[in-house]
Design a protein that fits this description.
9 helices; 3-stranded antiparallel sheet; 2 domains; 232 residues; alpha+beta; 21% strand; Arc Repressor Mutant, subunit A; 12 strands
């Protein structure tokens, strides 16, 4: 096993583990682990977390290849798409897995858990020669309504929703999959208010409870009977 061969192999992958090296070069996992540690000490690779290394100088690419399945969403996706003027403080990934957040190269990488019914609506893109996945605009709206704290505040949420470019048919198809009533109510209101899309032909709100439009604030005084929403 030559050093140049290992480097070429590492360069071809966004994230590398001792198991990858062991399988590719038919060596023991123990030796592969020691070999990667030596490369790290020589400054030839960077350690992401215990047992994971990378040659790639792109935190976004690395983040997208740490947990499977996962995709970029929330405030990070909104920033990449140009839907907010604010700079993201972290890289936010939607995933069905449970994983602690990590810090890498001065960047916080957040793994935000979604229920299995809500894991869909993302596209494959190429970035610096590697594959990443990012939320479609329709799913971005659903994600930030499901996890509002990921965008910081109500005003930012509205700004992102306004700036998205959605297809009505796809939005309605995605809305059919939602199993969270409060989310459906807020989604129905926002789409009607800002996108001129009416979900009432596909969504039936049966419970008579009202939810606050602003998930960050107190219960509003005005009401929208159609979507069972309270707002100010």
């Amino acid at each position: 096993m030559k050093l140049v061969e290992v480097i070429e192999f590492i360069e071809s992958r966004p994230v590398i583990t001792s198991n990858d090296v062991s399988k590719n070069f038919s060596i023991s996992k123990a030796y592969a682990r020691i070999f990667l540690q030596r490369l790290f000490k020589r400054g030839l690779v960077r350690r992401i977390e215990k047992g994971k290394y990378s040659y790639v100088n792109d935190a976004l690419v690395i983040a997208c290849n740490l947990v499977y399945p996962s995709y970029i969403s929330f405030f990070t996706a909104a920033s990449i798409k140009g839907y907010t003027e604010q700079l993201p403080r972290s890289i936010q990934l939607a995933t069905t897995a449970y994983k602690r957040d990590i810090a890498f190269d001065g960047t916080k990488i957040e793994f935000i858990n979604l229920p299995s019914w809500s894991f869909y609506g993302y596209l494959k893109q190429m970035r610096n020669g590697f594959t990443i996945f990012i939320a479609e605009d329709e799913k971005l709206i659903i994600d930030i309504l499901l996890k509002p704290k990921t965008v910081g505040n109500f005003e930012e949420m509205i700004e992102i929703i306004k700036n998205t470019r959605v297809q009505e048919d796809k939005m309605k198809e995605y809305a059919k999959r939602i199993k969270n009533v409060s989310l459906l109510k807020r989604l129905g209101y926002f789409l009607e208010e800002y996108k001129n899309i009416d979900l009432s032909d596909i969504v039936s709100i049966r419970d008579r409870n009202y939810v606050n439009l602003n998930p960050f604030g107190k219960l509003g005084k005005k009401i929208n009977k159609k979507w069972r929403i309270k707002y100010d």
